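Tip: read the tokens left to right.
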């Protein structure tokens, strides 16, 4: 019997795998692949300890879900064994559709295909292999189960996913400002009218949660050096795709070659079994293997971008609150062309500009507070705290980033 197998997690300590079915999912090659995909992509270029994986996060989220469901049961919420296991499976597999370097390559290897859509396809594929034993987990994941709070625990502004990744990312980056009281938040959770609510006495824990998430975005997830590295990675993959699709045969793994040679849509993944199977064999190591093989390639763009990654010679980035004018952007482009001495049609691989946005709390996806009188109120109204109201505003920062030098 494999149930009750124990894993030792650096954040929570010992985690028990509660059932045979869950163990078989964790043991499956599709899930084991998550060991080879870093949770924070290229953030270790800023925080060297940020080497934890999607595998860590998924297991941790499953653990927090079990604690949450146990707590709700203790408060008198009826949760069957089938619902309990399905809730754990839904959160365990919520990120299984992530590709290499997490979010960065959703816009280069893939054609703007969100990982949630791929996660659903993978869960459905696993369901076939496991004799439809994931039917209820799929309903919860899709938000189609009649008890809506299960989906809120998997995907909402105060879901188990966020409770784990904030604690885990804070732990591995060492950014103490991201610390949240997840234990207290879970203790304060309840269900009212089939909605997830927080007891009124937990309102300050929610304020701290939202504040910590906002800080983590600026200090970690949208750190300017991370943004710079991600833009470089997108440029590198786009160049590799351009070369492969124009007759050059780059040395790389079969799976990466498959995606570099074509442009895939969600429909391809839904209708072509090869697309999903190749994707499920793709991880960070395919990309790093390519980078090491391409560092001496005859194409100067691919060569330079590969060497920049290996030597941590990242794009210089200028981040500010005000939008860059068209004349400023053009001036920066002309300076870079003169400095790098490259053809203008190659500039897009070494120059990038855009906008970053951060919002800690969206009023369209509310967090509800259960008052002592039994009323359900949006946290921004219930708190009457200026911090939460301020965090409802979307903050934008504009950037220009470019290569500092080239090896021609």
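Filled-in amino acids:
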């Amino acid at each position: 019997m494999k149930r009750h197998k124990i894993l030792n997690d650096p954040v929570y300590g010992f985690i028990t795998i509660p059932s045979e079915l869950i163990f078989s999912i964790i043991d499956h090659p599709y899930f084991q692949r998550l060991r080879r995909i870093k949770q924070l992509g290229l953030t270790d270029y800023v925080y060297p300890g940020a080497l934890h994986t999607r595998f860590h996060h998924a297991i941790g989220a499953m653990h927090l879900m079990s604690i949450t469901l146990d707590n709700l049961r203790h408060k008198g919420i009826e949760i069957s064994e089938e619902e309990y296991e399905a809730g754990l499976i839904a959160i365990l597999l919520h990120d299984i559709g992530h590709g290499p370097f997490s979010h960065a390559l959703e816009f280069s290897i893939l054609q703007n295909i969100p990982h949630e859509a791929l996660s659903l396809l993978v869960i459905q594929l696993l369901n076939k292999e496991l004799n439809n034993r994931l039917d209820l987990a799929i309903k919860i994941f899709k938000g189609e189960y009649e008890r809506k709070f299960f989906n809120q625990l998997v995907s909402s502004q105060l879901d188990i996913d966020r409770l784990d990744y904030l604690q885990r990312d804070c732990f591995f980056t060492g950014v103490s400002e991201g610390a949240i009281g997840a234990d207290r938040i879970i203790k304060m959770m309840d269900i009212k009218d089939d909605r997830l609510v927080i007891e009124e006495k937990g309102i300050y824990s929610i304020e701290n949660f939202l504040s910590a998430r906002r800080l983590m975005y600026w200090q970690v997830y949208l750190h300017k050096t991370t943004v710079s590295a991600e833009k470089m990675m997108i440029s590198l993959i786009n160049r590799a795709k351009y070369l492969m699709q124009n007759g050059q045969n780059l040395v790389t793994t079969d799976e990466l070659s498959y995606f570099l040679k074509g442009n895939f849509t969600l429909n391809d993944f839904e209708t072509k079994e090869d697309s999903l199977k190749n994707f499920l064999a793709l991880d960070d190591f395919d990309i790093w293997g390519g980078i090491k093989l391409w560092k001496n390639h005859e194409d100067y763009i691919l060569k330079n971008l590969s060497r920049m990654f290996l030597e941590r010679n990242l794009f210089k980035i200028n981040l500010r609150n005000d939008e860059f004018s068209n004349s400023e952007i053009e001036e920066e482009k002309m300076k870079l062309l003169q400095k790098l001495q490259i053809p203008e049609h190659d500039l897009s691989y070494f120059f990038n500009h855009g906008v970053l946005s951060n919002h800690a709390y969206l009023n369209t996806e509310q967090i509800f507070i259960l008052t002592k009188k039994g009323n359900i109120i949006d946290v921004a109204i219930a708190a009457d705290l200026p911090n939460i109201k301020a965090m409802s505003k979307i903050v934008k920062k504009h950037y220009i980033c470019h290569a500092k030098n080239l090896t021609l």
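The mean pLDDT is 92. The chain is about 50% helix and 10% strand.
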